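Researcher: Please generate the 3D structure of the following complex. Treat every line as part of one assembly.
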Amino acid sequence: MARTTTNRRRTGGFPYLLVLPAVTLFAAFVVAPGGYALLLSFQRRKVNGGLLGGGTHTVFAGLANYRDVLGDSQLWSGVLRMLALGAVTVPATVLFALLFAVLLDLERTRLKRVTRLTIFLPYAVPGVIASLMWGFLYLPATSPIGGDHVDFFGQVAVYFSVGNVAVWGAVGFNMIVIYTALRALPPELFESARLDGASERQIVLRIKVPMVMPAVVMCTLFTVLAALQVFNEPNTLKPLSNAVSSTWVPLMKIYDDAFGNSDIYSAAATSVVLTAAALAVSFVTARIVSSRVQQEAA
Amino acid sequence: MTATAGTSAPPRARTAQAPAVRRPRRVAVLPTTALVLGALYCIVPTLWILVAATKSRTKLFSTDTYTPSFDLGIVRNIRDLSHYQGGIFWHWMLNSFFYAAVGGLLASFVSAATGYALAKYEFRGRSALFNTILAGVLLPQIVLAVPQYLLLSKVGLTDSLIGVLLPQLFNPYGIYLCKIYAQSAVPDSLLEAGRIDGAGEGRLFLSVGLRLMGPGLVTVFLLQFIAIWNNFLLPYVMLTSDDKFPLTVGLYSLLRHGAAEASLYSLVITGTLLSVLPVIALFLSLQRFWRIDLVTGALK
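Model: Done. Output below.
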């Protein structure tokens, strides 16, 4: 540590210069918009009395926006749909990613290179484009997968149809993350287990999977975070089907408030609520899973 | 090496270059089949789009969906798309590359500078900054798009290239990865030697730090390139003039018009195909630069 203290004397302001761009960007595009949204969420627009001519002005509204937002059944049905969607996408993404990673890591599996690349590719396809592709696969008029017999936008089916697009886009990246973690494990570990007569399946379940848990946890966390902010897939499928309304998930509701109804005050209040909820969920998830990983490691 | 090395089974082949010493005899049929099914699932939408793009707009809804059309429908579709509103589709393509490349480069530089400072210097507020960045990784960035729009509309920066670029330059995860990478790739002794030789801190960062962080920075760049390339909500709320749209927003607007005018569907399908192909090509050619172990190594 002696070195770092001399560093501080000699280097002067240089470290501050290095972090200046990031701190400025953080202040301008995270703190300031957050603060501004908070400010707006306590205001509302009031129409002036008619005698002196029209016009509006903003007034302090206290918690009225929050009361309206939290009492809005549209938002709560959106939250429920988001949860239902997350119940499809999060386990499916993480489990398939883990499954494919483990299969790729087996010695006797063939066609590893080509399958690995193909499963990874959807990561580079934007959610909107992916939704367009799947949308045409679902659409009865163009569907090659039986869209004229099966209603892909049915009351329950729609969650799987929307969720499928998200899973399709996310499995590959998560698979690569877990696969890389598997390849980094020391091989001696399995050799001795093999000598002791452990089967390949036991090695996977008892050694490999527990040891790559940190990578699985990170994938789960990022998938949960994405699920809370779901927007692209349902929003793109909306023009193709009546099953998806313009307030289908919370983020679509915020967009609809801000641009459909020009009510930026409600949109700001909903943004604050959703950001706080998402932060809380991701913090709690991070806390729970990291403590569990530490327990297992101990 | 221990004495038992000769008797124990050979270690697993770690890389494609090093062939296994003892070739496994049987192919694991079930795992291979499962992987092939997974790969098919991932490639089918792209293949179908390829087939659909070969069909003229009348055939799209009438002929058997699996068979491609060989009457040069795809040439006509590409020509129609290129003429649509004076070739605006190619504008969108260029815009997407511009946002992703410029944004990715600037964001990587910002991340590198911050990560390097956090890893290599002791300064006041360092741990507060690092904790803020860790929390930032958990921040729902997409939800911020609407508040960012509300603020930028206050200062008149909406519907501008800057309004789309600037909010995407702060990348807490990139900073985190750069810090981890700088810690392992830039040795303190080398910096000390440079200082003794009289190099300034700025020169040390640019010619020693950035150079040694190069391989990690490529990954940070690619991650951010894809993130910006895939982004929809931010440009969607920021932009109103369609000549500034990236592909995602452009094709979405085309789809919305298509809901009223079904003949536009074949343009949407052709546009989707043309937008997927270049990024897959780019992706495959840059494949060997991916350092995903950085993403997972960051956990240790």
